[in-house]
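[Meeting: bench + compute handoff]

Bench side (C.D.) handed over the final construct sequence. Compute side (W.E.) agreed to return the predicted structure before the next meeting so the bench team could plan truncations. Sequence as handed over:
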Amino acid sequence: MKLQVIALMKKLMFTVVIASLLTACASRPSPDAPFFEESVNIHMDWFYIFGGGEKALKFEQFQPVVEDDVVYAAFANGQIFAKSIPERKTLWILDLEERLISGLTKVGNVFYVCNDKGELMAVTEAGEELWRSQLTTVTLAPVAVSDKAVFVHVQDGKMLALDKSTGQQLWQFDSGIPRLTVKGVSAPRIDNELVYAGFANGKVVALSQVDGSVKWEHRISEGTGRNDLDRLVDVDGAINLIDGLAIASAANGKVIFVDLQTGRRLGEFPYGSVKTALALPKHFVMVLDDDSVVAIDPQSQEEIWRQERFLGRSLSHPVLFQGKIMVTDYQGYLYGLDVETGKPLSVNRPDHKGVQPQMIATEKHLFVQTLTGRLKSYSVRSSLK
């Protein structure tokens, strides 16, 4: 495969600074979208368009990475780019000249992406391919990288450990998968010599980073019901590792809290979700299976608030941005909710074709990647009166 860093002047890619009027027009909801009076102005500052005319399929998953005031992103057309956030200047573009299906993970100056052939690639921003490894199938989740290994959760229910220097497989853990699963996998998390992930069989598992042996496991969902949809048990959201706890949830299941050191199950909530929980100082926020958004007190295990205006809209993983809970839906709308009450505050529409399920928030900027090859940057301008 030929890798090349593309001269910026030769590519039909550009950054556009959009006027506030255009942003306002783009945020008007369609007739079937929830309507509410906005009280906060979430403003689109700029967007970047990947070249090549490729569109991501709905199951392909990409998310940007932010590091040292630079945002990095990959897309289905095989391109990775870097952009200075303060200067809004594209720094470089790398073209891998093959279709990608997921990414991006960045560690040091190395980027990890998966192509549509199920090959995981490690490349540098200079265009040097360090290695590529043929997986058992594709991965739709970001990889986790330790000092010695790269951990990959692939679509067939396996966790693979690859040598960080060579890409050679070190070990494999096979969870087994049920007949029907949600498209997507839980991103692995690493901490204290263990790698954590949830699997499509309804279990959350802690594995040794050295040999893949099981240190502890817990079943979150039993998969009972009259049909296959009712029996879905996927643990698709990433496991949260917070203050010595692992927090995980599953479709048609519950939320559980596990002590990381002992593996002891400390508690549970009766909420089914395939989305990553958002941990806040006072409570947890979750998007449930029916797209209700709920805030839960971890001490009393009681609901603080519940927002049901987005039922059936296939909401994304929630993120916190400047004191607001941000979610997107299947029609490409971006909503801001009040942290304390769940009240809708803002609505934008990054892309009518849809957006990627994982947004990235920094102190001042929210980055949303769309299915049509756009990366958009948002900020909070003011409260509307």
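W.E. noted at the follow-up: Confidence is low (pLDDT under 50) at residues 1-31, 224-234. C.D. will use this when planning the next construct.
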